[in-house]
Design a protein that fits this description.
There is one protein chain. By secondary structure, the chain is mainly alpha-helical.
Length: 253
């Protein structure tokens, strides 16, 4: 007979058991145990403790990773939270907590109302969850969808107001544009019309001076032969149009 170290699988208390006997009762919680199982449980605990604390090698369970993930969510460190839940899901893919933790990461703990990446993880969490766990997951997702719908409806109202405002702004813009074109045309005509009028007056003056020159020539002929000339407008002489007519034709010659 030899007593060896063991660990109760129910309460976790340290035990010393007779390795010859097949079973026993925990003196701490009164739970019956199989001797080999409590010895194995103790050895596993010691191995994990040494691995973590002596050799520094991480050997956490999926639940521990999930607890770490929840802590990182509280701290707002979404990158580390995602890494913790991914490790949990990889270590125990049939544990819904890892998948549901990723849902919380992708939705930033259900505060990001535009998230989409969470849907695949939500489906996996529902696929491996028990009935009670499914109810918890479904309740959380339905609350999130209601928040998304409410947000979308508020956006639709705001969009309609923006469209109405844009319509008013567009009509104001078109009105201003028409006024701009109208005033531009008026200014253009105001500036260009005098040039056209000046050009037209110049052409008419040239025509008049040519006729005036012809009249002067005719007057000389009439005077030479004593023929009376028909009266011309007095303004021709007052405005010195005759000299201008003679000067114009001297330039031509």
């Amino acid at each position: 007979m030899a007593f060896v170290a063991a660990k109760c699988t129910e309460c976790g208390a340290a035990l010393e058991v007779d390795d010859v006997k097949e079973a026993g009762i925990c003196r701490h919680c009164g739970t019956a145990f199989v001797t080999q199982r409590v010895i194995t449980h103790h050895n596993t605990f010691v191995t994990e403790h040494v691995t973590k604390n002596v050799f520094g090698v991480e050997n956490k369970s999926a639940d521990e990773f999930c607890r770490d993930g929840d802590t990182f969510i509280q701290l707002g460190d979404w990158v580390k939270a995602a890494a913790a839940f991914e490790k949990a899901a990889t270590l125990e893919p049939r544990n819904y907590k890892g998948w549901f933790g990723l849902v919380k990461v992708h939705t930033q703990n259900f505060s990001d109302l535009y998230a989409k990446k969470h849907e695949e993880c939500a489906a996996k969490a529902l696929a491996v969850a028990s009935e009670e766990e499914k109810r918890l997951i479904t309740s959380a997702l339905e609350s999130y969808r209601r928040a998304q719908l409410k947000n979308a409806q508020s956006k639709v109202g705001g969009y309609a107001a923006k469209v109405a405002e844009a319509n008013v702004a567009y009509r104001a813009y078109r009105g201003a544009q028409i006024w701009m074109y109208t005033i531009g045309i008026i200014l253009c005509l105001t500036l260009v019309a005098p040039l056209f009028l000046w050009a037209g007056a110049s052409l008419k003056k040239d025509k008049f001076l040519d006729l005036c020159f012809e009249i002067i020539k005719a007057e000389h002929e009439f005077k030479k032969f004593g023929i009376p000339t028909p009266p011309a407008e007095k303004r021709w002489n007052d405005e010195k149009m005759r000299p201008q007519a003679l000067l114009r034709h001297e330039d031509k010659d």
